[in-house]
Amino acid sequence: MPESIYSERIKNLPPYLFAEIDYIKRKKIEEGKEIIDLGIGDPDLPTDNLIVSAMIEEVKNSKNHSYPSYEGDFSFRKAFVDWYFRRFRFEFSPSDCIALIGSKEGIAHSFLAFVNPGDIVIIPSPGYPVYGIWTSFAGGVPYEVFLDEEKDFLLDIESVPSDILSRARMVWVCYPNNPTTACASAEYYDKLSFFVKKYGFVLAIDLAYSEIYTDETKKPVSFFEVVRRRDISAIEFHSFSKTFSMAGWRLGVAVGNPDVISALLKVKTNTDSGVFRAIQLAGRTALENYERITPKIRDVYKSRRQKLESALSEAGFNFYRTNATFYIWVKCNGDSKDFAKELLDKYGIIVTPGIGFGKGGEGYFRISLTIPDDKIEKVCDIIKSIDINSLSYGKEP
Ligand SMILES: Cc1ncc(COP(=O)(O)O)c(C=O)c1O
Whose CA is nearest to atom 3 of ligand 1? Predict the structure, then answer.
């Protein structure tokens, strides 16, 4: 089929970065070698039985078989805002939130709600690739702000020139951050809210990892928890994928300023027809049992983090110390793609090169803690055996 059938937006997509890594992986597997994949951020833990049982019951109920409502079932949205209050001590009404077919769906559609062709969208680099790609799909122009380890990977809004800020339609932040694992403080959100009010852009906050933290005394904060008002043009995206190990179920929530939420809903009513009601009702069970279900999930990642971090330290790697996400953001001081290829070739380990998240990710790689515990032990032994001085990455030929 000739490429001319493709739209410009498809043709302009960046080339697939990981083709060479995939090629080495396939070759190794053909040779019968074992590969440990630390690249994928897909929770390996099964969904809790309470949620699965609720789903089984709701699937049997024929009332759930028709089209769901666009905004989401009232009882699901009520359970969400009740949970939000328990977790963040800020009260939303069920009409301030909508159900999403996974947060990625809502994130993508929000660009159609707020971005006109030629508009600027401020995005982090490194960052979740969907922000940049959907800016372009909507005809907008991404303005990348590099995240700097010395500034704790916080998107430095003060570094953006005021003529850019006044032309920006959206600003995206994600904390706890994928891929850097950094968290935002209340002071940081306070400062951002000042810029939202001054420049009038829509602030989008991606909270996909808000519930994956290691220290109970330092829980990640939310934007609305800090600003304590809804009359500010901001929207938060929440996900069930990581919080409840429900990635395959496709369930998320957008919550925030009612006008911002209703603009996103307008796009969605003309695109999809909501989330299968049985999934929303199982999601309601998840939210109602959050305090029972999620500590176990956090404990697993915490113990894996301790093991892998100590193996990395033993081998001499430098990585960012964090309290959240199920990733480790490790320095490789050179071409991250070459480093990942060498690690796979010599040690059979797959990691994600930082460049895959944008130019600001170069010089780092991301390790994911979503592999089963028996493999964690194995990969720790391999990491400890790495002689980093023998790796050729980042060195002059
Ligand atoms: C930063 C970030 N946001 C959003 C998502 C999307 O999550 P989901 O669509 O499964 O809710 C992901 C998934 O990996 C992510 O890493």
Answer: 208
Residues 104 and 241 in one domain: yes
The pick from 174, 211, 241 for probing ligand 1's pocket by mutation, whose C-beta has the most ligand atoms within 8 angstroms, reads: 241
Residues 241 and 303 in one domain: no
Q: Which pLDDT band, with edges at 50, 70 and 90, does 41 fall under?
A: confident
Nearest-atom number in ligand 1 for the CA of 247 is 10
Asked if residue 174 has its Cβ within 6 Å of ligand 1, the reply is yes
Verify whether ligand 1 is closer than 6 Å to residue 41 (CB atom): yes
- Kindly give, in sequence order, each residue whose CB lies less than 8 Å from that of residue 106, ignoring residues fewer than 6 positions away: 98, 100, 237, 252, 254, 264, 268
Q: From the CA of 251, give the closest atom in ligand 1.
A: 11
The residue to which tokens 């033993």 are assigned: 314
Whether 20 and 61 share a structural domain:
no
Residue with tokens 């220290």: 215
Q: Is the CB of 247 under 6 A from ligand 1?
A: yes
Among residues 268, 291, 314, which one ends one of the domains?
Answer: 291
Full domain range(s) for residue 26: 3-46+293-390
Together in a domain, 200 and 165:
yes
User: Tens digit of pLDDT for each residue in 320-355?
Assistant: 999 999 999 999 978 999 999 999 989 999 999 999
Residue 340's contacts (CB-CB under 8 Å, 6 or more residues apart) are: 21, 350, 351, 352, 353, 365
Dihedral (CA of 256, 173, 160, 358) sign: negative
Q: Does 241 contact ligand 1 (Cβ within 6 A)?
A: yes
Read off the pLDDT of residues 105-163 as tens digits, 9 standing for 90 and up: 999 999 999 999 999 999 999 999 999 999 999 999 999 999 999 999 999 999 999 99
pTM flag (> 0.85)? yes
Distance 312 CA to ligand 1 centre (A): 26
User: Which domain CATH number covers 351?
Assistant: 3.90.1150.10
Q: Which atom of ligand 1 is nearest to the CA of 241?
A: 10
Distance 261 CA to ligand 1 centre (A): 19
Same domain flag for 83 and 99: yes
Answer yes or no: is 395 within a domain: no
Using the 3D structure, point to which of 270, 291, 312 is the last residue of a domain: 291
φ and ψ at residue 17, rounded to 5 degrees:
-75, -25
Task: Say whether both 303 and 335 belong to one domain.
Answer: yes
